[in-house]
Automatic annotation (TrEMBL):
Family: Belongs to the ABC transporter superfamily.
PROSITE patterns (UniProt xref): ABC_TRANSPORTER_1 (PS00211), ABC_TRANSPORTER_2 (PS50893)
Species whose genome carries this gene: Proteiniborus ethanoligenes
Domain of life the protein comes from: Bacteria
The protein, known as: Peptide/nickel transport system ATP-binding protein
Boundaries of every ABC transporter domain copy: 2-252
Keywords (A to Z) from UniProt: ATP-binding, Nucleotide-binding, Transport
InterPro entries: AAA+_ATPase, ABC_transp_ATP-bind, ABC_transporter-like_ATP-bd, ABC_transporter-like_CS, Oligopep_ABC_C, P-loop_NTPase
Length: 326
């Protein structure tokens, strides 16, 4: 469904006073992945790692600095806006904040009619019936269309956001932290809803989240990002049960445990994630890595495929070095 090849995005930072360039932020720095039809790829990493920027690049809400994006084998990274307009309905997004994602001046019916009208999904005489169908699809009443966003709870607003994303009958949806603003009980309802809709319509998802339990629940595969690069990717059970990259191990060790009383060896990373304006040399993780070697400071590790089909970017798995899980 989606293939990303050497995708990069740089942002020029300008002085607010003089308007001169202060530097360049490497938000996404050469990443590759594929998302098959009906599959969910979970994208995890600390704030500032480039997750949301990656999602927006795929949707062409941002223009890539370099690299290719393919939708069902077609390169959509360089086509004109006019050519892309016909493909817009195939690529949709569910935003993070349900309170700011909906226009408070519009009724829910008007919000859902907009994509139907723009992309000519159904004729004008069918708008109301289609709105009712979309609302019922996400567990709301068809009569809710006459209400305004402020009349709904956060979970209900997120259901409306999902209905809007599905209005164009897309093939691929970016879920950008869609449950982070919701309480735990509502989170489970929204997550189960997205999975049910995926099964019903064969949707493909890029699911971006900080919460590792959310990623494990919804994803088939996982990609771990650090400073604009993917450092490890593979099937969800392999990544969660046997993480290989030192950064992935640190993330997994920090996740809350569902079993009270069970001990786990927490890996506490030193310092903060560096600025994208001043990336460390060699491996970008070396200044925080508990397994750092001399080569890490000077040479960037290549992505290496292991026996279980996962891919890791770490010198521990290169140049004939054996795996050290200690």
């Amino acid at each position: 469904m989606i293939e990303v090849v050497n995708l990069k995005k740089q942002f020029n930072i300008k002085s607010k006073v003089l308007g001169v360039n202060k530097g360049v932020v490497n938000a996404v720095n050469g990443i590759d992945f594929k998302i098959e039809k009906g599959e969910t790829l979970g994208l995890v990493g600390e704030s500032g790692s480039g997750k949301s920027t990656t999602g927006r690049l795929i949707l062409r809400l941002l223009k890539p600095t370099d690299g290719k994006i393919y939708l069902e084998g077609r390169d959509i990274s360089t086509i004109s806006n006019r050519e892309f307009r016909s493909l817009r309905k195939d690529l949709q997004i569910v935003f993070q904040n349900p309170y700011s994602a909906l226009d408070y001046k519009m009724t829910i019916e008007d919000i859902l009619i907009q994509p139907l009208q723009i992309h000519k999904i159904v004729g004008p005489l069918e708008y109301r019936n289609e709105v009712g169908r979309l609302l019922q699809m996400v567990g709301l009443s068809k009569h809710d269309g006459k209400k305004f966003p402020h009349e709904f709870s956060g979970g209900q607003r997120q259901r409306i956001g999902i209905a809007r994303a599905l209005a164009t009958r897309p093939k691929f949806v970016v879920c950008d932290e869609p449950v982070s603003a919701l309480d735990v009980s509502v989170q489970s309802q929204i997550l189960n809803l997205t999975m049910d809709l995926q099964d019903e319509f064969g949707l493909s998802y890029l699911f971006i989240a900080h919460d590792l339990s959310v990623i494990k629940h919804v994803s088939n595969k996982v990609a771990v990002m650090y400073l604009g690069k993917i450092v490890e990717k593979g099937y969800v059970d392999d990544i969660f049960d046997f993480p290989k990259h030192p950064y992935t191990k640190a993330l997994m060790s920090a996740a809350p445990l569902p079993e009270p009383g069970r001990n786990i060896n927490r890996i506490r990373l030193q310092g903060e994630i560096p600025s994208g304006m001043n990336l460390p040399s060699g491996c970008t993780f070396h200044d925080r890595c508990p397994n750092k070697m001399d080569v890490c400071e000077t040479q960037e590790p290549k992505l290496t495929e292991l026996d279980d089909k996962r891919v890791v970017s770490c010198h521990l798995y290169q140049e004939g070095r054996s795996n050290n899980d200690s």
